[in-house]
Amino acid sequence: MDTAGVKRARFTNPPSEVDRLSSLPDCLIFHVLLNLPTKDVVKTSLLSTRWKTLWKHVPGLDLDTNDFKELDTFVTFVDNFLERNRGSSVQRFKLTYDTSDVVESNTGRVKRWLDAATWLKVKHLTVSDNSLHSWDLVMSPTVYTCSSLVSLRLLGITLPNPERVSLPSLKALVLILVEFTDERALENLISESPVLENFCIERSNFSDGIPILRVHSKSLLTFMHDWGYHEDHNEDRIVEIDAPMLTYLRISDCRTTSFIIKNTPSLVEADIDTVFDLISERWLGVVIEVQKGEMVRDFLVGISKVKDMTIASSTLEVIYDYSRYVQLPVFRNLYSLRVRFDSYMWEMLPVFLEVCPNLKHLVVGTSENSEMEGIDVIARPWNLLSPLEHVDIERHLKGEALEMALVGYFLENSPNLRRLSVTLDDSLKKGESVTKLTISLEDDAPRKEESDIFIKLLSFPRLSSSCQIVVY
């Protein structure tokens, strides 16, 4: 921080200027400073005489070893903070470190700090080990019985399965690349958190010690499960969800073989991106296909009461393939759907739309890694999309046959469609960029642009007489 610049600003302010920030009571200032890294909080000591020691009384710590040139300075700073707050409570305690620098085999320095934080009735605890694939730190047992803990965020830590778990105040749990010494460690942690509302887990590409993840919670509102693909794994993994209060579910997972949704009657929103660990060498016959199809159907039944859903085209592809073996459930409550396409395989979209009888809003999006592969679309007559009112095609159109077939499908099969919006690729925009152009049924020729794509859009028959095409 430029100390001289701060001093210049302080002494060149007009005498009549009021320092409103310094006039705030300490409790409000502490509330603001609690949301800043400690290195920035310390810099406020340069603002004025009042701020010189104010930072020392902020009931929170957010430190990273990378902010210190010397490890001893980092250690001393943490020790002094804990000593200074002895006898009081701590709102936040956040440590980011590298195991090879901080953890001592004999003293367990980080464990000692965590023990001290729990004794100080910490409410929000974050521990991040940035070392590569170490998981050397085994979480201190005192954390499992911290009655004041409201949120817990762990990265690169190993969690044991202690004899006693009691977290009566824990509402938010985030686990990133965490390993477990016992396959029931996480299940016990969740079940002994009676007011847990938000649970997010990003699992390691290596085995994390949990072949079956059971998420059983009567209070859980949000569950997010993220697990990337890894070529070396060959074990079936299962996630079982029993959460009657769950309103939001996000799954981004290439490894889990089976998702078992037992009880989610309150589900409102879902974001699904999974292929149920289907890789080419496992597609080995009708028996396996039927068994997998039943699992996929049961999963869809478990989320079928959702109202707002985002789904990846890779998941739709699985649904499309297995719709030949099993009957898909009906999504009667679904009124808003977003599909992220990574190819031009539109064929599978109408199959899913047929089981969404009350869908009103559809967004056709795109993933970051779009490919140009596709299959023939609209190969058979489809049911009318009677309730559909708004369609937004966010993928930038280039006027190719597969793209235009999709546009035509919506216009020709949606009797109540009010608006279909498309976004053109920049290569199709001539002259000045067109920010927005609306084409109604009465238009018989492009008025501002001469691009062929406008002619194609006008040539499509529209089942809805009030439909407008909005071009961006």
Characterization of the model:
With 472 residues, the chain is α/β, with parallel strands linked by helices. It has helices at residues 3-12, 26-33, 38-43, 71-84, 99-102, 109-119, 185-191, 286-302, 313-322, 348-353, 401-413, 452-459, and strands at 60-64, 92-97, 124-129, 151-155, 158-159, 172-176, 179-180, 198-203, 212-216, 222-227, 238-242, 248-253, 258-263, 269-274, 308-312, 336-341, 361-366, 390-397, 419-424, 437-439, 468-471. It has a 16-stranded mixed β-sheet with strand order 1-2-3-4-6-8-10-12-14-15-16-17-18-19-21-20. It is globular. The two termini are 45 Å apart. The relative contact order is 0.05. Mean pLDDT is 81; it is low at 1-13, 280-288 and 372-378.
* End-to-end separation: 45 Å
The strand line-up of the biggest sheet is 1-2-3-4-6-8-10-12-14-15-16-17-18-19-21-20
Average pLDDT taken over every residue? 81
Contiguous low-pLDDT stretches (5 residues minimum) are 1-13, 280-288, 372-378
